[in-house]
Amino acid sequence: MHPRYVLKRTGQMILTFFVTVTFTFVLYQSMPGGPAEAMRAMILAESGQVGGSVDLNLLNQMVEHYANVNPDKPLHVQYYDYLHSLIVQGDMGTSIYQGEPVLDLILQSVPWTMFIGVYALALGYTVSLFLGAAMAYKERSLFDSVSSIGVIFLNSVPYYIFAIVLVYVLGIEYSLFPIDGRYGTFVDPGFTLEFMGSVVWHATLPVVSMGILATGGALTMRGNAIRVLGDDYVRVAELRGLRRSRVAMQYVGRNSVLPLYTQFMIGIAGVLSSTVVVEEIFAYNGMGKLLYDAVLLHDYPVLMGTLLVFTTITLLAIYIADLTYGYIDPRISTGDSND
Amino acid sequence: MTETDELDFEELFDDDTEREPPSRSARLKRTLDLTVLAPLRIALHDWRAVVAGTILLLYGLMGTVGVWLATKPSSGDYPKLQGPFQELAYPLGTDLYGRSILDQIIYATPDMFRMIFAGAVVAVGVAAVVGLLSGFMRGTAIDAVLMMLADIIITIPGLPLIIVITAIFQPTNPYVVGVFLGVDMWPGLARTVRSQVLSIREESYVEASQIMGLPTPSILRRDVAGQLMPFILVNASLTSRRVIFESVSLYFLGILPFTTYNWGVLMNLAYQENALTRSELLPWLVFPMITIILMSFAFVLLSQAMDAIFNVRLQARHAETIDEEEVTG
């Protein structure tokens, strides 16, 4: 891989990170009445002081304690302090409602969200790629038309409605899967087979509901594969007497998957987005639920922290995907990409 | 026609100096035929377009005539928790507060169209402008900045971002909600438009225009924008589906204020009351869900149909339109 490309991508990633941090800072500032006014009622309610006037200095100090932003200081100093505490000290502020550092809350929930997110992506894209390829090989057959209509229909069902239907049918009517929580109530966390099994069992329905987000990939894959199948080099490969499996995997498969890459990239952000709704439906204590609860409680530090971590995860995922993609498709890393 | 021996390139390829300019009405008729009627004629042969069109027409009627026919739902209108298909006054039954479910679904339609309209216009409009600009200025600072901006917004997961924004600004106007949703959707599309522009730029006819020294704006308008139009329409349809999905999810989560009727609001209320385990509450949850699925189904179908229609447009044009001599598509 070209070192210049790696350097460029790394720089781009760091820049994006700074822009996002700046963006959350701007969001704090653009709250109606500024951060102090917006958080005033929340802070007062939590610190037990009800009504009456409060010392403005004290309030500003408290805002700084929770949000790392002191409305008393000039804007650029506030910005510097915000960046400094976040990047140097790893301090994302303190939850107003729970009184715990935001970072701790997030660290407790991130692995669970990553777990269901990664599985949903892997499962969703694997199934839709194979389905798309099969549809292309059997173009214009009954299987093709039935699957096409099926995929179009799945595309029209919002993932959260799919989740509700799954809860109703598989969770409540047939009691096949648990419908809430991350693992069984009577299971002790640890590296035991029982615990692992329980975790997988509880993750099944959320993973499947999020996985249908990727089904759109099946139609794209079908289109790509049909186009590649008509290409000369596939015919040549067949005429050379190469094994069918080799033609299918190395010639057709690889060339029709590559254009799906952008879709996959955006899919990472999409799946992480969907965790907010899905985790709420399944009462799954991950980052999405953390964010959702923070919205309801107006817990702004947690809100900004989760947004920041959500973005950072996507950023890293796309970065890794980008670099590995350079290995698969050499055109991209020579700098003269076809975009 | 005047007799000149040497050919003037400018004259040959410039729209405005056609030797016998057709009258305004003829030109209008020709444009209308090419851009609206011909695709429409082909659309009628495509079952997906017919089905999608019919469904969307019904939703359109629901949002206009339907609102006028239905009564504004309020608590205590009818007996509580009536089952569906029993009484003509509330064909889909009533909710826990005695409101007709059908009336609530109908009253949510106009705002949904407003959100879709605002979201699609913002997403597709910004995407087209950014994509065209950056595709044509490839390699310049403008291209770099625009694409970096797009990459940054792609990276921020959409729903959390919108949740944070709506939590802070609490929008009630459906147009504003639509714009917020659209802002998150343009970058992916802009990137695709850009790469389309890049590949169109390589086409020989665009190269020819450049060699002839036509100014960039007119190349953009005549050669590129026309080519991109089908692509943009298909994506407008898909964007509409995304706006439905995301706006309903925001109402379903209870993050947007419940000041308007929305299918997501119905779902939220029913779900909060444990509709899944109380069968008498199920219609309250199920009918809004069907409404949402059917509408997005129509948009997905429409995008598929448009994709097919515009791809065969060139062939069909030969058979069906008045004048084939239009310079570019």
TrEMBL record, chain B:
Topological type in the membrane: Multi-pass membrane protein
InterPro entries reported in the protein's UniProt record: BP-dependent_transpt_permease (IPR050366), MetI-like (IPR000515), MetI-like_sf (IPR035906)
One Pfam family from the record: BPD_transp_1
Chain ranges passing through the membrane: 49-70, 112-133, 145-169, 243-261, 281-303
GO terms classed as biological process: transmembrane transport
GO cellular component terms attached to this protein's record: plasma membrane
Keyword annotations from UniProtKB, A to Z: Cell membrane, Membrane, Plasmid, Transmembrane, Transmembrane helix, Transport
Domain of life of the organism encoding this protein: Archaea
Stretches assigned to the ABC transmembrane type-1 domain: 113-303
Main location class: membrane
Coiled coil: none
Compartmental location: Cell membrane
PROSITE patterns in UniProt: ABC_TM1 (PS50928)
Record family assignment: Belongs to the binding-protein-dependent transport system permease family.
Protein known as: ABC transporter permease
